[in-house]
Design brief:
- By secondary structure, this protein is an all-alpha fold.
- Helix content is 72%, strand content 1%.
- The chain has a two-stranded antiparallel ribbon with strand order 1-2.
Length: 295
């Protein structure tokens, strides 16, 4: 098993780093749209696991990138994630009043401002990524757009809304989550790696296989924690999926089956990194952390 104190210190350092990058990248509250800027900063700063940023930094290390080279793509994926949460929590979507242990953005600022904050965060993500020190920033923006839109995160959310109260097969559930959660996680890994040296086709495929498995494992664990965790621990309303009649890995496979699926996916993620040997250390540790997490 990888991980331990050294990983904890590395992750804490990267979380501190991305917090500073995000703080500098978001609009100032002294600008003309002061309340909008406040809502954007509220939705983005001061909380969250920063898993997507950690994945970007870890993939960047594998590809020989300096942390400063990964700052922009890491910030971009975190902004996209923050925008998705601000919108997902709205009454017209998942209808949750709590996020990251405090009132959701629409509760704190009103629904209209939360909508605008999400819109503006999405735009800001592409502004930041477009200015990144990367070999092909345009391709990076296209990759993030695909991961965020109808063939990625937004498409997965649409399937999720339509599936409420309905039964899904495991294959249908996997498709939904590979879009809703997995697409942005895959983008974080690929964008982080793109900040470094160009990888050959085999290495690129191995990294993407890792990201696919890790992304789905993250969602399976989320489903388990929604049942086993508390609202205080999770920082969001526990038991919400069952209350809303949403299909999950727990409702389909049971708790033991869902835990076994998460463990199997973590094994897939680790196996995918075998060609990289020690260079993939941080990515391996993140895969372990994903399945061990309690919130």
């Amino acid at each position: 098993m990888t991980g331990g104190t050294d990983f904890a210190a590395w992750a804490a350092g990267r979380r501190t780093r991305i917090e500073g990058v995000l703080d500098r990248s978001l609009p100032s509250v002294d600008g003309p749209a002061r309340r909008l800027a406040q809502a954007m900063r509220y939705a983005t700063l001061g909380g969250g696991k920063r898993v997507r940023a950690l994945l970007a930094y870890a993939a960047g290390e594998l590809a020989g990138a300096e942390p400063s080279d990964v700052d922009a793509p890491a910030a971009a994926v975190e902004m996209i994630h923050a925008y998705s949460l601000a919108h997902d929590d709205l009454p017209s979507m998942d209808d949750d009043a709590m996020r990251r242990g405090r009132p959701a953005c629409h509760v704190a600022f009103g629904e209209a401002t939360a909508l605008l904050a999400g819109d503006a965060l999405q735009s800001q993500a592409f502004a930041v990524l477009g200015g990144a020190r990367m070999a092909d920033a345009a391709a990076a923006c296209a990759l993030l757009a695909a991961a965020s839109g109808a063939t990625g995160m937004a498409g997965g959310q649409a399937i999720d809304l339509e599936a409420t109260g309905k039964a899904m097969t495991e294959r249908e559930l996997e498709t939904m989550h590979r879009l809703k959660t997995g697409a942005l996680i895959r983008a974080a890994v690929r964008l982080g790696a793109a900040a470094g040296r160009v990888l050959d086709a085999g290495a690129d495929a191995a990294l993407d296989a890792y990201a696919r498995a890790a992304g789905l494992a993250f969602q399976v664990v989320d489903d388990v924690l929604d049942v086993e965790g508390s609202t205080a621990t999770l920082g969001k309303t526990a038991g919400k999926d069952a209350a809303q009649g949403k299909p999950t890995y727990v409702s389909l496979l049971g708790l033991a089956g869902a835990r076994a699926r998460a463990a199997s996916l973590a094994d897939e993620a680790r196996a995918a990194l075998a060609p990289f040997d020690g260079a993939a250390r941080r990515l391996l540790e993140i895969a372990d952390d994903i399945v061990r997490r309690t919130h």
